Every structure is written in structure tokens, then in C-alpha cells.
Recover the amino acids of this structure.
């Protein structure tokens, strides 16, 4: 089947996987199942996936560690499954690169709905891109002496150097570049960037801003384009 969505489900309990797999396949999606973190990383090295469902409590590697490892190479949208409705689990998962989380027990229909919502948000992020550019240069939507943004390939250049950004880092920086000198509160940034901002905490924004600053300093150590407005939020200088 052409353009069939590929889903990787990483969960060691077959009683959870089987009904979930049935619901996903009813949507016309192809499902691969890994019951350990090691197996999941092996599958990711062999083929591409459109979505990852990842249990936190795996028998070999903690799901958070699996997420950290895969985020070094892949930006595949990811949803965590957690056995507890624990704020710490939610915060850690979102900070290391998850797009969403769902606490057990859950309904398969809820997982399907969350996957579709994340895909819709991702499509909206690239909807303004120019059609099928022949090169990154012709794709550039926003360009200045400092920044060049390529929405279709989800890339940003800083002083001519392509930044290796996570999806949320890209979204944050792209929004700030679109509105230089405008101060955004943490809540405003969460509302603009995250699929489910009500599940996030303000420190999640701070963590991603910190990561962005580190990557920008690797290009220009003496420059600080992202400004902190204490008690308010963040802005990007022109």
C-alpha cells in the first residue's frame, strides 16, 4: 500500500499491544512491535517510521534513555506511555523530546486521536513552505544577515551554518525569528509550540531555550541573540 503510515510500538506487555495494534491497523497504518528498547533502536536503524509509541517501563532500557538515544539521530514524533500519572514523568518526557504522553490505563481510540492531532500540528508547521524547492536556497522563507529559515526541510541557518535542532527547538526559534524583539511569555510559547500545552510546565520552555542557546554559542560564542526578560519571558534581538 502506497504511503502507508509506519508506526513503531515499543511495549513489553502483549495485553496492551494487541488491542492497540488492532486499532492502529484499522486506521490503515502498518505497525511494528518491539518489546525492548534495544530492539526498538535496532528497528529504527533499519527503517523509517512516521510515529513512535514508547513505554517508559521497559525490561531492559528505561524508555527515557531510549528517547534520548533516538533523539540524537531521529526527529520522529513520539508519544510516551507511562504507568503513573506522575508530573515528574510528564516533565522529563517532554523535556527530552516527546511530543505527548498518555497514562495507563488508556483507550486505543485516545492514542489514535493523539497521533492524528500531532500529525495535524506538524503539517500546519510546514504549510507555509514553498512547494518542492530545488534547493535550500530557493526554499528560504525568512532571510537576513543572521538567519535563514527553510520551513519545508525544517532547517534554520545561523550566520550561514545549519543548526542541528530538535523539532521543538526549531519551532521555538522559528517563532522568535518571525517576531524579532517581541517578548513572549512562557505560556504564550507553550500555546504556540506544544501539541498539548496544558500538560507542559514553564520549565519545559526554559530547558529548550537553554538547549537552543548552547547550539547558537557553538556558532558564535560571544553572541546572545535570545534575550531573557525576567518575570516576563523571552525575545530575539534583531
Amino acid at each position: 500500500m502506497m504511503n502507508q503510515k509506519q508506526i513503531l510500538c515499543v511495549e513489553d506487555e502483549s495485553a496492551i499491544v494487541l488491542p492497540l495494534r488492532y486499532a492502529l491497523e484499522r486506521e490503515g497504518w502498518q505497525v511494528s512491535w518491539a518489546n525492548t528498547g534495544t530492539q526498538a533502536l535496532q528497528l529504527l536503524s533499519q527503517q523509517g517510521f512516521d510515529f513512535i509509541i514508547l513505554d517508559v517501563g521497559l525490561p531492559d532500557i528505561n524508555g527515557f534513555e531510549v528517547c534520548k538515544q533516538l533523539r540524537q539521530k531521529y526527529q520522529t514524533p513520539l508519544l510516551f506511555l507511562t504507568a503513573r500519572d506522575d508530573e515528574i514523568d510528564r516533565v522529563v518526557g517532554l523535556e527530552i523530546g516527546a511530543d505527548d504522553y498518555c497514562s495507563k490505563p488508556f483507550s486505543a481510540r485516545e492514542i489514535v486521536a493523539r497521533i492524528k492531532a500531532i500529525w495535524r500540528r506538524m503539517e500546519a508547521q510546514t504549510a507555509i513552505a514553498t512547494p518542492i524547492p530545488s534547493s535550500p536556497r530557493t526554499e528560504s522563507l525568512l532571510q537576513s544577515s543572521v538567519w535563514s529559515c527553510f520551513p519545508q526541510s525544517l532547517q534554520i541557518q545561523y550566520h550561514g551554518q545549519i543548526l542541528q535542532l530538535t523539532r521543538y527547538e526549531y519551532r521555538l526559534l522559528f517563532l522568535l525569528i518571525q517576531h524579532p524583539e517581541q517578548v513572549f511569555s512562557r505560556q504564550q510559547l507553550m500555546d504556540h509550540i506544544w501539541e498539548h500545552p496544558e500538560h507542559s510546565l514553564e520549565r519545559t520552555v526554559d530547558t529548550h531555550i537553554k538547549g537552543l542557546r548552547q547550539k547558537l554559542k557553538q556558532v558564535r560564542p560571544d553572541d546572545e541573540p535570545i534575550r531573557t526578560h525576567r518575570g516576563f519571558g523571552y525575545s530575539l534581538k534583531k
